[in-house]
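Lecture 7, part 2: worked example. A protein chain together with NAP.
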Amino acid sequence: MTKRALITGITGQDGSYLAEFLLDQGYEVIGLMRRSATSNLERIAHIQERITLVSGDIGDQVSLMNVLRDYHPHEVYHLAAQTFVGASWSQAALTGETTALGVTRMLDSIRLIDPEIRFYQASSSEMFGRVRTVPQNEDTAFYPRSPYGVAKVYGHWITVNYRESHGIHASSGILFNHESPRRGLEFVTRKVTNAVARIKLGQQQELRIGSLEPKRDWGFAGDYVKAMWSMVQQESPGDFVIATGQTHSVRELCEYAFKLVDLNYEDHVVTDPAFIRPAEVDLLVGDASKANEVLGWKPSVSFHELIEMMVMADLKAIAAQGS
Ligand code: NAP
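Predicted complex, written out as structure tokens:
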């Protein structure tokens, strides 16, 4: 029997890697996307012929129920959300509507249409915020520091609650930052690698950025989507931290990315108070021992390999635009 999976947020970074991975596993892939006046299929253009795209919005319960009723997926990967921490202060209510309540709308749709559907929730290390222990694992208490982090805590607990209240096979992946050449341009890794490429090619002089001190545990998105799938295949649902266990500062990120093209970050990076957040998360580093033991998961791409992959991809793309 061919398995069918519904991915919300298929036009995003993780949605595109997960769709590729599920197609490779022989799945039929249904992607939920919201209507947009301009096309945003860039990340999935190469697989568009092999997937079914359906219209819907995680703010609209009926559209979610219709998709489940019409396509009968066996698994739902709920990735759609307002995902940018920085924007969550200026659009706090919208972040709550999508990133938090969107999870309930999808879980209620599953409960009403077919409670046998297995569910994956895209939880985040931002839930740990002002960290209570180092490193952070599944038992670490949450202390979110942004409206995004607060919304993700709600999404995490409603997933646990529907598992316990309604017996839904619902798992929560607490994923630490994961990046790729497909990362949105506003996220710090891609902001840096894109600027490095543009500066190297003479299209930009400086990179304006917030604090250089925050430390993050950065992995490769292609590795992390395999963990999502693996959680959904387990006999029993659960919560899993997915992380590399290594942490690096934004300063180290800049230093290494500029060094890759023989530039000194100190000549180009300008710290700009406009990018400082109302509350910062200083340090994140995850302990993925449970995922390693239960799922057999471990990362395959190191921080340095990841940044090199992103800088090279940006150099190639920007050079191609200019030619
Ligand atoms: P992303 O690239 O920003 O993609 C977000 C996706 O959500 C896009 O496809 C977007 O569609 C969609 N979306 C937003 N609002 C929607 C709505 N109202 N209805 C339907 N779709 C909507 O994010 P990502 O990096 O792939 O992350 C995937 C998930 O993992 C997110 O829930 C994120 O919070 C979570 N997460 C990510 C990380 C990370 O480091 N990447 C870490 C932990 C957790 P448009 O294309 O139309 O905007």
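The longest strand covers residues 118-124. Residues 4 and 241 are 25 Å apart (CA to CA). Keep this in mind for problem set question 3.
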